[in-house]
Amino acid sequence: MDSGKAQMASSKIRDxxxxxxxxxxKISITISPLQLMKVGEEGRIYQLRGSEAAxxxxxxxxxxxxxxxxxxxxxxxxILLLPSGQLSLPAHLAKPIWVxxxxxxxxxxxxxxxxxxxxxxxxxF
Length: 125
Fold this sequence. Notes:
This protein is α+β, with helices and mostly antiparallel strands. It has helices at about 5-15, 50-60, 90-95, and strands at about 30-35, 40-50, 70-75, 80, 85-90, 95-100, 120.
């Protein structure tokens, strides 16, 4: 076998895509709308996709990319547990929120969430 073919054969062996399936690390990452999350699920805000006004209102409430949250209630309004406390969110403001859900993702904060704090928002902006 000439050196070109030998080099090609050895490069295939080192290619991580050629490893046995059991040796390839599995990564489970899901990005989904907040509206698809169930009670008890948690994640981190990935992106706000909506009107400029809705995104500005969510940012004023502290819902920015990277914020950890857990769904406490879905109906009639969303109640989210944030590191700063609980937040009551009208259904129309849940639509623009996209969440990064990762099995390793946990509601982390330097301080414990204050479960007694509930912020009520107006239904229209």
